[in-house]
Amino acid sequence: MKHGILVTGGAGFIGSNFVLDWLGAGLGPVVNLDALTYAGNLENLASMEGNPGHTFVRGDIGDLALVQGLLEKHRPSAIVHFAAESHVDRSIVGPETFLRTNIDGTFTMLQAARKYYDGLEGAERERFRFLHVSTDEVYGTLSPTDPAFHEETPYAPNSPYAASKAASDHLVRAWLHTYGLPTIITNCSNNYGPYQFPEKLIPLMIANALAGKALPVYGDGQQVRDWLYVGDHASALRVVLANGRVGETYNVGGGNQRTNLEVVTTLCALLDELVPESKFKPHFQQVKYVTDRPGHDRRYAIDARKLEGELKWSAQESFETGLRKTVQWYLSNAEWVSNVTSGAYQQWVTKNYGDRTAVAGTAAAGTEGAR
Q: CA-to-CA distance for 20 and 131, rounded, in angstroms?
């Protein structure tokens, strides 16, 4: 028997990819709760239109009555909690929204889940899980020689975004130990792939390169991130939900450490190859180094051996294969990009990047919050 799930933030980048993956695998119905803020986009789920297994509800995770009503009506076997404000640069400019959504919103979800779980009996109670999807940024930063983040790495968040996600992780842990709510936490590395909002490094570089605009890279471009193709992340979450142990944390990584500059260089070469008619070849000539942002973590790396060994999961895409798929998707979906890059988004890009001064010898897109 297939059992339904409640997904929060299921119209966002990772959430929508997970919903599409889940429904595509025929694993059961999905109730999708999303507030449709700037990064939530129902166009991500256009292929699910008319699918009786997908129920979309526009609403806020901070609305306790709404969440409780959905749980009682649909009786899901799990909550998969993606909903979050996720872009580090935005958290620096306006941290209040991050605290409200990521901390208060998660608290509301936990309270609703606790009440629902306390009313379950028998197999329903045994089956229920609260899966909290978090980030590697809660661990802080690494030096070039430090070992990768593992599940026991102490938390040391360095941005308002990372601090708000760390706080939400702690709440989830507390609701497990204090109230017995069966929770699992995953901490993932930087995601990339289809449907990512074009404020993040890879889709921003694609859009700017094709438009002949500057490719802004923070500082010297030597910040290192571990890149995880979003399809691999979705498969990892399915495995964790099916077989993960209650109370455990699982780190999810792609095993693809690259500097920002390496990402941009590889991306430009792909665009040169895949868009031979472009007027802006070679695209790397559009790189512009700009002042680094405050508190920019130097290196992230994920040790995913626990997930790989215990649950037999492994990433299927290398960075090269995943990036090629991603670029091809954006090239084939120019209308989607055009629709999401609204006037409000353009104002944000101007506000965030317009005041940064160029740094001689160094091109600024952030990689964090690629969630």
A: 17
Q: How many residues does the chain have?
A: 371
User: What pTM was estimated for this model as a whole?
Assistant: 0.91
Mean pLDDT of the chain: 91
The answer to whether the beta carbons of residues 171 and 110 sit under 8 Å apart is yes
C-alpha 251/C-alpha 237 separation (Å) is 11
Q: Answer yes or no: CATH 3.40.50.720 is held by domain 5-193+229-252.
A: yes
pLDDT for 344 beyond 90: no
| Burial of 139: CB neighbours in 10 Å, binned 0-12, 13-18, 19+ | buried
The answer to whether 51 and 93 are in contact (CB under 8 A) is: no
Task: Compute the distance between CA of residue 57 and CA of residue 39 in angstroms, rounded to an integer.
Answer: 16
Task: Write b or e for each residue in 80-100: b if 16 or more Cβ atoms lie within 10 A of its Cβ, otherwise e.
Answer: bbbbbbbbbbbbbeebeebbe
How far is CA 217 from its chain centroid? Answer: 20
Phi, psi of 252 (to 5 degrees): -120, 115
Residue 350 has pLDDT above 70, yes or no: no
Residue 312 per-residue DSSP state: -
Contact 216, 340 (CB under 8 A): no
What is the set of active-site residues?
136-137, 161
In what helix (H) or strand (E) does residue 9 lie, and over which residues does it extend?
Answer: none
Kindly report, residue by residue over 17-57, the tens digit of the pLDDT.
Answer: 999 999 999 999 999 999 988 778 888 999 999 999 999 99
Residue 331 is which amino acid? Answer: L
